[in-house]
Specification:
single chain; about 140 residues; mainly alpha
Length: about 140
């Protein structure tokens, strides 16, 4: 009986949960870009005309777009490409297993962006407000 109530609660509120998921993923990705581009949060600023600089641009602006729910699917696709690049350049040389090569975060971001790519902005975001669609 309790399982049915819990399932009903989740089903009834799935848009809220998805919104929170989207914003958290966007905020975390945004922070990674802010560290690389501007040295915020105690990080080291990187040269913008480098692979790390390009990753910083994708992470900062892609994260902001995901937070705002603007072109979410496109930002998620760029994020996935960024995570494949991070995996290939930074983690694979240390071995294939994410837990052993430090690539867990890249793998989790990749999986999160896959969900965002499939579902888009959903109910709350600028895509719906501006374009009356869910990008």
């Amino acid at each position: 009986m309790r399982y049915k109530k819990f399932g009903s609660f989740l089903e009834k509120n799935h848009d809220y949960f998805y919104f929170v998921f989207r914003v958290i993923v966007g905020l975390l990705f945004f922070q990674h870009g802010a560290i690389k581009l501007y040295g915020w949060f105690g990080g080291n600023q990187v040269e913008i005309m480098s692979f790390m600089g390009a990753a910083g641009v994708i992470e900062f602006y892609g994260g902001a777009l995901i937070i705002l729910g603007l072109f979410t699917r496109y930002a998620a696709l760029l994020g996935m490409i960024d995570m494949v690049g991070a995996w290939y350049i930074m983690h694979i040389p240390k071995g294939f297993m994410p837990i052993l090569n430090g690539g867990e975060l890249a793998a989790l971001f990749f999986a999160s962006f896959l969900i965002l790519l499939v579902h888009g902005t959903k109910k709350w975001g600028l895509d719906k407000l501006i374009f009356k669609r869910h990008y």
